[in-house]
Amino acid sequence: MHAKSLKSRLLGFAGGAALAVAALTGAHTSADAKSSLSLGMALEPPHLDATAGAAAAIDGVVYQNIFQGLTRIGPDGSVLPSLAKSWDVSDDGLTYRFHLQNGVVFHDGTPFSADDVKFSLDRARADDSVNAQKPLFDGISEVVVVDPQTVDIKLTSPSGNLAYNLAWGDAVIVSPKTAETNKTKPVGTGPFKFDRWMKGQEIRISRFDGYWGEQPQLDTASFRFISDPNAAFAAMISGDLDAFPVYSAPETIVQFEADPRFEVAIGTTEGETILAMNNTRGPLKNKLVRQAISHAINKQALIDGAMFGLGTPIGTHFAPHHPAYNDLTGLYPYDPAKAKELLAQAGYAEGFSATLKLPPPTYARRGGELIASDLKKVGIDLKIVPVEWAQWLSEVFKETNYDFTIVSHVEPMDIGIYARDKYYFNYSSDQFKTLIDELNVTVDEDKRTELLKQAQQSISEDAVNVYLFQLAKTGVWNANVKGLWHNAPTPANDLSQVYWTDN
Amino acid sequence: MLWFAFLRLIGLLTTLLAASLVIFVVLEVLPGDPAEVMLGLNAQPDTLAALRAELGLNAPVTTRYVSWILGMFQGDFGISYTYSVPVSELISERIQVSLPLAAGSLILSTLIAIPVGVYSARHHGKIIDTGIMSVAQIGIAVPNFWIAILLVYVFAIVLRILPSGGFPGWDVSVLGSLQALLLPVVALALPQASILARVMRSALLDVLHEDYIRTARAKGLSNKATLWRHGVRNALIPVLTILGLQFSFLIAGTVIIENLFYLPGLGRLIFQGITQRDLIVVRSSVMLLVALTIFVTFLVDIAYAAIDPRLRRRA
């Protein structure tokens, strides 16, 4: 008897549970009226003030959506007018005059004027500035308000980079009224205004009716933060998300390529991925050893094995899609025999052992294993030490306490880092420094290209680091979504041109 | 009795203080500087110094420890380095996900485990018992994230009746929030239920062999009444112990499940805080968890007494 009653009790429970599940599942529909977009990002920004942090995720949300600079970087990497409709350069190259757009207002209703430009640039250059890219403003001696629509930027020496530097997310224009609260409530001049941030979950933005330029087609957009690759896959394939512009699970790309509901876009980034070497440590002091290591690594196998074939081989610290790129991939072809020979010549015929510190990204963790096995073949024993970002920044980057590490340098046009003293790979070359000094004061485009090519040649010949590959940008989105960037000339998800097509 | 309560309170406070010291010291010696993490590769030394000053990282260690402890006594958990909002605000947002998640899976696992465990014990040695216990064994062996992936595949990708993850927020949509929690609750509950069912079964089997069960039957009490009044009740003590442990685990140890369903829970907040060296967030959240765990242990002690009158008298 009681067995039966227990059974009926269990059945009752099961029935109740089934009812509850039915009630919960019934109402689930994907809620897009084709004027909103939900977009996935692997990392959540720590805050939303683009002028006070290095995290790419900040620009991923705010750049050109909420905040704008005097100039902007277009989808192809070119420098375009933004809050400045045009600019002229004085004959001596020391004064840039920017003519500002009319009728611009911040999202809080405050009108925008040349005073805001002066405020923003002076704030970024100030002694107590917390701007992560402060060197961008190094050459500026003074910012002068000519009239509300005109501003002069005076330089200490001519610079070919100013318009480009001002297009960075770190150089966006903010209002003095809201500068202090932009971290949590960003107020800019862009086509979208900030709505809500549910921390750990999503950020919502919506169209700003008072926008000075062409109105965007989207009414609202939400950025959702999904770090787990499995979850990213599930969210995309189930249709919960409309787009994942920097998709984090390359191993599942094939499934999206085969599915007509999705568009897959493989584009370029500014991320030169390198095996960095500490140029002042032990055997790595010797150029022959560094050249041997460059020969010992099979870069194509690395791209195929660690990145599922997504990535472009590079021979130097420069983005291949840039017009000034110097193709040096032939300088150190994969040749273990040659590597052994060079090692013997340097006095390391027996090889040596060293450590390889790997930060968390997949390219480093996966690539590290392959590199260790390549180097083992020529007698170099690598001990792999996985580290967290924070640890990497202090141990490798600041204290330069490492032999080898793998990292992607995502800042655009950053070959100048090889001229810095005490930069983490400890390279020091007077010849290279002279080249960069000359480049910084050269305005003529052809001459600049020539100098940039020489600079690339110089670091490659010295085999400062092993140049592995240019990181690819793998985007996946609903096939009906148009207008997202295919390449990543700067970290951004510019939604101003995004729209839905009818099925 | 009062003396006992007083000693107990002193013990609780000492535990909390010791925990706070351990948490603080461990996070202090951890390599990495929040300012470096925030400003990245191109940061200049003067910029880093400016940010450190802004965050109050330049004060001596002892000053920072004391001001943290004093702040917590006044309900001030500090301001997050990275998010720039009060830590208490961050924690209370996350609790709105973590607490229902933990409570939901605990309730679900209890609802499954107790009837199943009792049923299995009642049919001890029969095929049905072996069958149930084999399933429970699999439930223990299979990690909850694997169950989660499977659930997402079936309900979100194939059937498309539930979201694959995310959390809309209680104020936006109660139904949507419940939907969002359904799969994670099930994924967390199944392995817990398997453990609990096995504990329930073996505890009940132990009890059923006791003399007082025979006595109860001998005095004419029905099988069913004996089972529920004397059997299950006495077997609940080990079950409660496990439940207490499971709750502490569920409130913060669910970071993998939170990642898989991209839920903004407490586990992910702490995990993110560690990677970004947002030490003030980590410190205060871990402290809160320690306090919560101590509190739950205390509640379990009380529950023992409610179940077992002998414990009440001893106290």
Automatic annotation (TrEMBL), chain A:
Solute-binding protein family domain span: 80-408
Origin superkingdom: Bacteria
InterPro entries reported for this sequence: Peptide/Ni-bd, SBP_5, SBP_5_dom
Pfam families attached to this UniProt entry: SBP_bac_5
Subcellular compartments: Periplasm
Keywords: Signal
Signal peptide (UniProt feature, chain positions): 1-22
Family classification: Belongs to the bacterial solute-binding protein 5 family.
The protein, known as: ABC transporter substrate-binding protein
Organism (species): Pseudovibrio japonicus
Automatic annotation (TrEMBL), chain B:
Domain ABC transmembrane type-1: 95-300
Highest rank taxon of the organism: Bacteria
Keyword Transmembrane helix attributed: yes
InterPro entries: BPD_transp_1_N, MetI-like, MetI-like_sf
SUPFAM superfamilies reported in the protein's UniProt record: MetI-like (SSF161098)
The keyword Transmembrane is annotated on this UniProt entry: yes
CDD domains, per database record: TM_PBP2
Cellular location(s): Cell membrane
Protein name, UniProt field: Peptide ABC transporter
Bilayer-crossing regions: 97-119, 140-162, 174-191, 235-257, 286-307
UniProt topology in membrane: Multi-pass membrane protein
Alphabetical keyword list: Cell membrane, Membrane, Transmembrane, Transmembrane helix, Transport
Family per similarity comment: Belongs to the binding-protein-dependent transport system permease family.
